Amino acid sequence: MGANDEMLLLKAEHIKISFGNVHALKDVSLSIRPGEIHCLAGENGCGKSTLIKIISGVYQRDGGTIEFNGKKLDKITPIDAINMGIQVIYQDFSLFPNLTVAENLALNTEVASGKRWVSWKNVRKIAEDAVSKIHLNIDLEAKVGTLSVAQKQMVAISRALMFNAKLIIMDEPTTALTKKEVDALFKIILNLKAQGIAILFISHKLNEVFEISERFTILRNGEMVATGNTKDLDDSKFTYYMTGREFENKKFLPAKVSEKPIFELDDLTSPGSFEHVNIKLHGGEILGITGLLDSGRTELALAMFGMLPASSGKIIRNGKVVEIKNARDAIANKIGYVPEDRLSEGLFLQRSIADNIIISEIDHLTSKGIYDRKKRDREVGNWVHEMEVKTDNPENPVTTLSGGNQQKVVLAKWLATKPEVLILNGPTVGVDIGSKHDIHVILQKLAEDGMGVIIISDDLPEIVQNCSRVDVIKEGRIVGEFSGEGLNEAAILSAMM
Amino acid sequence: MRKFKKAFNSNIEVSRLLVIMAFWLIFMAVMQGGKFYSGKNFLTMAGQFPEYGLMVLGGMLPMITGGIDLSLVGTANFTSILCVFLAVRMFGADGTMPFGFIVVFFLIAAIVGVCVGSLNALLVSRLSVPPILATLGVNELLLGLNIVMTGGAAISDFPKEFCDFFSQNIGGFLPRKVIIFILIAFLVWFLLEKTTYGTKIRLYGTNAHVAEFSGINTTRLLFKTYILSSVCAALGGLMMLATYSSARADYGSNYTMQAILLMVLGGVSPNGGKGKVSGVITAIILLKFIESGINRFKSVSTYYVTLIWGAVLILALVMDYFGEKPRKVRVKKQG
């Protein structure tokens, strides 16, 4: 690695572990210098979590060596790891939601002290010390369950710092955060670095890796495929390391746009969520709608699909005003909607892939009132093939699929209703890079074939690459429209903020 | 052997009950062969189960949607009391009822079913009352009405043509009540397996929110479901009328629990999304065998029947646990 070995805080080499016949890690090495921000990246299932569990003593490795702070370690228990200064902040933060912030922070120390009685004064003092390290301003008496995700994360970081941490491992810390909260988190990470604490930052988001880390390690299928300085990395290399595939990210250019708009919103208003929204969508174009998390974009999406009807204004399809009061009205007007949260709104998780695909068009799969199983199976077969859903049996529960393939099922379900307008709210959230690319290709193809597509997303690279026109929504109002040359990330971002 | 195993696993709920049934039948053959295996005993059993069997067939539908119908028994008694009142009003307490008037009884059952079912569905779908409370409330309402109408006493003076007709057997071995049960069982099976309704309620039962997003007309689905349930219960009421030859506000008060027990035993998931007609029919027959078998033992009081039902339910759940276990992937060691 070029670096002098004595400078390393953590040196893990040739780590191997297998569960049954599955070789979760084949030959992985990872080295971290004191006080550096190191990014560990890789797609879901590549072995990132397994590696950190080995380092923190949760799993025992089958082979390889680990040195921490210059000391060779044969066997690590979770207690050893904590005592040496290794702290892991998991995605669920491992906090007690029913206890207060102060109790959560002081719990370990109090228990460790072996005292029978709780000194509340002591609890408060410990907690105050803990939060002061990251200048966190928080009500110590608040129940953790009532805090926002970002606040919980800060509490978890404060707790980690109580143990003289030398290395803090953060497992995908930005997943549930807004852009502002991510910025605040990064500030704290830099502050920790200044105090000489090393951070192992786990992420699969390209922009974060570039923004925060100095060095990186990328895993794929249990093997280390690359490690080095982040400044030597670029977009296409990163994607290639992650997936092993090279993608041509094709910028969407509308081929033939219909003369008249096929879908219009005229002064659509829903007080408190969005106001006076005017949108025109032509067949053959992909319109992007972007805005911050609470900008009203989701409410607008739900209003277009009838799940949260607007209180005033008109929805116009092919020049005619239509009433869309529920999802059925929307489907009858040939509008499809890929929801924001596929787990709670898009899929019947325990049901088969097949049932999930056909449910919205089920009334067309009958002959003489009787459910035609053959027709259904044909339809399912077609869509599984068309969308390249990776499954050996469509009667398996949809939970057996990866996030990307689940999203393809949601897409198939809506395409099966033969929509002319397709609204997608966060079409690639939680989807691996390969499937994300596949979904973009599908969407561009649909638009080329004449469908009107609306992508609602805060993933700016996605918006810029796939949309021919972008509307920015801020505090419930459309504040800007970009197209052609003016359509770039910087312009959109400044309109969003 | 492998083929057998496959058939066993393909319908695990039914197979499991059949195993228990086989053991029970062998046990009865050894212990009480002559008394249990008599044509008369089988005829008695066949005459008894349709009344609550119908409630199970109907009640399983709300349970598949993730709800429950606790108004089954109230609906049944309400129906039989209305029928008796009408017959007395038209033909007098000791008059004769024209045979064709039986159709009117069924008509009343259908009307009561539609009304009660709509009320349940209205509360559940439009006002978002939890099904368990909505239907419990409706049941109390009906029970109250029944008591007010009858003054709490049994009415046994009314034209008995209906009761006579439905307590007879065809060809000496097939009770007419069983015919009604088979017809309804076929109807419910047809709806669940041969129409899109079955897929829709199972998906609705899995996740109502996603069903809404998928464009399923959930209000219509719930109305259909609760109406079917109440119509079945009302038909059950007619069968009770035939059995007891009288109507009372609180006949069959233990049928609610019994019906729920049979649904769960028959593989209908109380969480919704799962349930088959074949399962509940097997459960109905099994429980009837067990109940009747126990009655053959002079030394065992009939009070023990409830206790044994509880034991059977727990046994089925235990078998379910062990049957499912190896199929679960071990999740402990996943990275």
From TrEMBL, chain B:
The keyword DNA-binding does not apply. It is a multi-pass membrane protein. One of its GO terms (cellular component) is plasma membrane. This is ABC transporter permease. Keywords: Cell inner membrane, Cell membrane, Membrane, Transmembrane, Transmembrane helix, Transport. Pfam families: BPD_transp_2. Its main location: membrane. GO terms for molecular function: transmembrane transporter activity. It is found in: Cell membrane. The chain crosses the membrane at residues 12-34, 54-87, 99-123, 174-192, 226-245, 303-323.
